[in-house]
Design brief:
This protein is an alpha+beta fold. 53% of the residues lie in helices and 12% in strands. The strands form two sheets. The protein has a four-stranded mixed β-sheet, with helices on one face. The radius of gyration is 21 Å and the shape is globular. Glutathione binds next to helix 3.
Length: 305
């Protein structure tokens, strides 16, 4: 009986694109199901009960989560062609190290989103961070055609969708990021010449329009600064927060959420960081309005961190 293979993802997600590229490299057919992340399907919630995130590859009813883990799974299951990871344990661990560098803490995507959605100092910091990360990768690439040497492999799969996203970000402000890393540009073109990559990447114009719409939304949000007491002991600034800093990273907007438990413990998250958001807010707020209960909580946060 033929394998049943379903990929839950979104067209714009660089993480989903990694999986699409790996499947295309192997020449495996699958069904792609576009998820609406604002209204996740029961199947996604069932198959990814921990993180509830895309992508998820469902192979004969069994889920595999996390894009780089999925790519490794694909490489192991469909090992008849186009190996993505080297067979030598040393080179394999080397490839895993660099894929982990790309994915770690979501730092590169956060910097890309910040570049797109923030302004001024935060945007400049994001630009410098991103250039720094890409230069490290440029150094690792050296004069090799691909990260693993002569053939397209695991690290290339990990990076090319993100690189494509950074190109879209770069178009918005003409930041010249790509000029800083000429070898990566050549590498990216080489990757994009592969059908497995070009057919899997989102359409550049559609991606640009999507980011433009998102940028407009967040600019509108940023202009209406709200400071409100949500509960007795929780403060939201900018009126825009979700349950994790994922949202802050995604939208690159300036938001801080601070929760003070009854025991006085502080939980805080924010973007660019809770404290710099607070500094900006405080500098814009008159001292007379600082006598509120919200401010006393805020200063408790300051004292306890
Ligand atoms: N580390 C994960 C990241 C996946 C991820 O962040 N997916 C986002 C979409 S691009 C998502 O599903 N977000 C939904 C949510 O956070 O609720 C991977 O590599 O698969």
């Amino acid at each position: 009986m033929a394998d049943e293979l379903i990929l839950l993802g979104t067209w714009i997600s660089p993480y989903s694109t990694r999986v699409k590229i790996a499947l295309a490299e192997k020449g495996v057919d699958y069904e792609f199901r576009e998820e609406d992340l604002s209204n996740k399907s029961p199947l996604l919630l069932k198959m990814s009960p921990v993180h509830k995130k895309i992508p998820v590859l469902i192979h004969n009813g069994k889920p595999v989560c996390e894009s780089l883990i999925i790519v490794q799974y694909i490489d192991e299951v469909w090992n008849h062609k186009s190996p993505l990871l080297p067979s030598d344990p040393h080179y394999r661990s080397h490839a895993r190290f660099w894929a982990d560098y790309i994915a770690k803490d979501n730092k590169m995507h956060s910097a890309g989103s910040q570049l797109l959605f923030s302004t001024g100092e935060a945007q400049e910091t994001a630009k410098n961070d991103l250039i720094g990360y890409l230069k490290v990768l440029e150094g690792e690439l050296g004069d090799k055609p691909y990260f693993g040497g002569e053939t397209f492999g695991f690290v290339d799969v990990a990076l090319i969708p993100s690189y494509n996203f950074f190109c879209v970000c770069d178009q918005f402000g003409n930041f010249g990021i790509m000029v800083e890393c000429p070898s990566l540009v050549v590498w990216a073109h080489r990757c994009m010449e592969k059908e497995s990559v070009s057919k899997s990447l989102p359409d550049q114009h559609k991606a640009y329009d999507f980011c433009l719409e998102l940028k407009k939304k967040f600019e509108a949000k940023r202009s209406c600064l709200v400071f409100e007491e949500v509960q007795q002991n929780q403060i939201a600034i900018n009126g825009l927060f979700k349950k994790s800093d994922e949202l802050c990273n995604l939208c690159g907007t300036e938001a801080a959420v601070i929760t003070l438990s009854n025991a006085g413990n502080t939980f805080a998250f924010g973007n660019p960081s809770v404290d710099s958001v607070l500094d900006r807010y405080l500098s814009m707020t008159s001292s007379s309005s600082r006598a509120s209960a919200s401010f006393s909580s805020l200063f408790r946060h300051r004292v306890s961190t």
